[in-house]
Amino acid sequence: YRIGDEQGIGSAGDLVLCPPETSFQRSIRMPLSFHYFHFDWVHRDTGEVVSAALAERHLLPCHLPLARTNRLQSVFGYLRSFPHASVQKPVLRWVEHMVDDLLFMFMTERHLVPLRLDRPTTDPLMDQAALTIRQHAFEELNLHRVASAYGLTPVQFSRRFTAAFKMTAHDYLTTLRLERACKLLQETTLNLEDIAEKCGYRNGSYISRLFVKKLQTTPSEFRAAHRL
């Protein structure tokens, strides 16, 4: 495919997001079901359609292989079952809900995808440090103490960890905690305060701000869209 000046190769279970008013070209190299959705971006507060110029500033072409392919296939199955020619409001609401679910998966995994890089890096010491972070991620973990435990200053540790994992140790820890929070929102009825405690945070308000900043949604919206 080609999106503007960007190009790549997609495969089964991938999502490709194209910004507004950007040319999108594709060719099929092997038999593959290709689902195409065209939609408007709507402002969260006003309900108005966001202009293409504004959306483009916040949205770059992005190609993301999804980890949760079963959920993706389920959403596609529901979408195929709807009558495409129907403009009845109940049907349109269900279609909008399913497309919203695709976008939630996209935004969530776009942030969480670095966690799947759990294979060893070229820095064994940082591999051990990452293991320490994973083992204690849901406690009150002090990264300065982690650095000290490996004989490094905080600055040395930060630079070395970032070089190894292409993300800071703080972002690595945040991603671990967000992944657990997402799982708890999906699979339990725990309130946000209890979820925060189980994820290593002191209160629910902080984790709520983190969701908006990192995932562009609130915990309650995420739960409503992804509840199993």
TrEMBL record:
Entry keyword annotation includes Transcription regulation: yes
PANTHER family, per the entry: ARAC-FAMILY TRANSCRIPTIONAL REGULATOR, HTH-TYPE TRANSCRIPTIONAL REGULATOR EXSA
Protein name: Helix-turn-helix transcriptional regulator
Originating species: Paenibacillus hemerocallicola
Residue ranges of the TM segments: none
Keyword annotations: DNA-binding, Transcription, Transcription regulation
Domain HTH araC/xylS-type: from-to ranges: 127-225
Pfam families reported for this sequence: HTH_18 (PF12833)
Source lineage: Bacteria, Bacillati, Bacillota, Bacilli, Bacillales
One example GO MF annotation: DNA-binding transcription factor activity
Keyword 4Fe-4S assigned: no
